[in-house]
């Protein structure tokens, strides 16, 4: 059944428990608060939640520095609350993915504390040590400008330890079979508590060879197969969604030739060129990125996204393209980060213009993959550039115009709620938008329904139609005798196009899925479409009786 591969046609909603909903008034979001908001998420139509790290952690990298993999941060509740939450999700048909951060631990993790204190500790080899400072210690930093090195001297150990990320995140020696066994144990634990898979943090680094003498680290791809196999044995529908900002030529190595490694990966090349397309109206680099990432095993899937909790990384664009995106969306230095990206949320980047926001989400939802949105996207939340680094885009969810946006009754929220300017909670909040049929929230609900009812996008083959006018992207998806056609005008001016849908007579009738309009082809099989500035149109090709033609196998 196609629904067994649920991730091919899902809509994933990413959130941080800490900033979603506080139930006990201590200023910190918690699982009980989140559970109370599940009907909201079910109503929105998302069918999977990705939870950012919530395990015990000193919180120096927003939980990506785990100090105990088998417990949750007590500020968020108890393991009992967690199981209540996964149960509540199950009842509503929502699957739960959680972050799996096993490239590194916190330096406060008992494994690291033991490893540094005693050369004979069983955990010594769980980390990577060097007596001398390795020659490449000043290379490969992930957070340039904030992180100084990748090897830091530890007084207690009397040696240098390796850390790809911040110095309080020592890398695990993932080649060590004991570490690998522990990773499986961690996955098994959370699977047992009701999760359906993992967003695996920093996959290329997890599988890279590590050590002071390694010049050109090779990837240990078999590790991915081991993880995947284990998951399938424990729970057949569980998946790994990899965070892997890699070159398209390596995609298949991550998915596996036969689709026997990770099921999903975020599509970073398309993400970056999509922002370039939004900035310039030039869709060519995005079409090229789609082409480069077209090949994948049948069971694999890309996660499509606009903004996530990190900076918008533009590192793979050409210098000119990157400058175009900076100029359009993050012209000031304090909007940029790590010499490669922009740290703002999408809504402020697009000037809060709902038409452009709709265009951006419609475009992302119509690309070949599974859309991943972030809490607050559905109401167009903004950012607080006074907060350091990536925290600016991690402020609490804005539920209403009550104090602290209804996130907490405490006057000391864990991060400040946005309260100034056009993106303040008094203007941008769920309660207000729920009442307005034209709001972004209600529009997003309709978009989600539309996307879920077009499984052609998740499952089918796509064709970028040609020729269309500059700034217009027309994609047709075909799957099991059904087709959808989605057209976007990225330019700020209206445009008229004459389109041959490219599938014979079947293509003579287009029914607009969102609107009551339809289009019939002229004698030459071409549709004349008038697209307003920043318009998006979703069509079902050949009429609406697709449900009759569709087979569920
Ligand atoms: C990637 C995560 O998305 C980011 O937020 C984090 O800082 C690093 N990995 C380190 O875990």
From TrEMBL:
SMART domains: Aamy. SUPFAM superfamilies: (Trans)glycosidases, Glycosyl hydrolase domain. PANTHER family: ALPHA-AMYLASE FAMILY MEMBER (PTHR10357), MALTOSE ALPHA-D-GLUCOSYLTRANSFERASE (PTHR10357:SF219). Keywords: Glycosidase, Hydrolase, Isomerase, Transferase. Residues 14-408 form the Glycosyl hydrolase family 13 catalytic domain. GO terms for molecular function: alpha-amylase activity; maltose alpha-D-glucosyltransferase activity; transferase activity. One of its GO terms (biological process) is carbohydrate metabolic process. It comes from the Bacteria. This is Maltose alpha-D-glucosyltransferase/alpha-amylase. Its EC number is 3.2.1.1, 5.4.99.16.
């Amino acid at each position: 059944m196609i629904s067994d591969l649920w991730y091919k046609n899902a809509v994933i909603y990413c959130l941080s428990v800490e900033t979603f909903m506080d139930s006990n008034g201590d200023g910190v979001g918690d699982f009980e608060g989140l559970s109370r908001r599940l009907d909201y998420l079910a109503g929105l139509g998302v069918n999977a939640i990705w939870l950012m790290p919530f395990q015990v952690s000193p919180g120096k990298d927003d939980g990506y520095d785990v100090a105990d993999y088998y417990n949750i941060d007590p500020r968020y509740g108890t393991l009992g609350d967690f199981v209540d939450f996964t149960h509540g999700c199950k009842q509503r048909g929502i699957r739960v993915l959680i972050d799996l951060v096993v490239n590194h631990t916190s330096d406060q993790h008992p494994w690291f504390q033991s490893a540094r204190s005693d050369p004979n500790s069983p955990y010594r080899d769980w980390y990577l040590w060097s007596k001398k400072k390795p020659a490449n210690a000043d290379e490969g930093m992930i957070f340039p400008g904030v992180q100084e090195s990748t090897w830091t001297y530890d007084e207690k150990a009397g040696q240098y330890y390796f850390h790809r990320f911040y110095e309080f995140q020592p890398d695990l020696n993932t080649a060590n079979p004991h570490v690998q066994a522990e990773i499986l144990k961690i996955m098994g634990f959370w699977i047992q508590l009701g999760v359906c898979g993992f967003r695996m943090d920093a996959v290329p680094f997890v599988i890279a060879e590590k050590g002071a003498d390694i010049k050109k680290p090779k990837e240990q791809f078999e590790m991915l197969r081991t993880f995947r196999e284990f998951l399938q044995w424990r729970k057949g529908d569980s998946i790994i969604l990899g965070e892997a900002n890699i070159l398209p030529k390596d995609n298949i190595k991550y998915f596996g030739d036969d689709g026997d490694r990770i099921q999903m990966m975020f599509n970073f090349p398309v993400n970056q060129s999509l922002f370039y397309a939004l900035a310039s109206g030039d869709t060519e680099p995005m079409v090229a990125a789609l082409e480069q990432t077209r090949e994948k095993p049948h069971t694999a899937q890309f996660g499509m996204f606009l903004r996530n909790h990190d900076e918008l990384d533009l590192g793979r664009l050409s210098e000119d393209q990157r400058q175009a995106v900076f100029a359009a969306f993050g012209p000031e230095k304090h909007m940029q980060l790590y010499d490669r990206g922009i740290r703002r949320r999408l809504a402020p980047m697009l000037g809060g213009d709902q038409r452009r926001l709709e265009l951006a989400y419609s475009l992302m939802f119509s690309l070949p993959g599974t859309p991943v949105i972030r809490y607050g996207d559905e109401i167009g939340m903004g950012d607080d550039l006074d907060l350091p680094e990536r925290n600016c885009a991690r402020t609490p969810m804005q539920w209403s115009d009550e104090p602290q946006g209804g996130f907490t009754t405490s006057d000391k929220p864990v991060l400040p709620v946005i309260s100034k300017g056009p993106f303040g909670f008094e203007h941008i909040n769920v309660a207000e938008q729920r009442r307005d049929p034209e709001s972004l929230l209600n529009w997003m609900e309709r978009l989600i329904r539309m996307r879920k009812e077009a499984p052609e996008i998740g499952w089918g083959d796509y064709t970028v139609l040609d020729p269309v006018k500059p700034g217009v992207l027309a994609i047709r998806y075909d799957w099991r005798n059904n087709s959808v056609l989605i057209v976007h005008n990225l330019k700020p001016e209206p445009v008229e196009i004459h389109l041959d849908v490219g599938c014979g007579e079947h293509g003579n009738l287009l029914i607009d899925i969102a609107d009551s309009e339809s289009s019939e082809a002229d004698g030459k099989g071409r549709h004349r479409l008038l697209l307003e500035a920043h318009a998006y149109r979703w069509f079902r090709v050949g009429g609406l009786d697709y449900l009759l033609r569709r087979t569920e196998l």
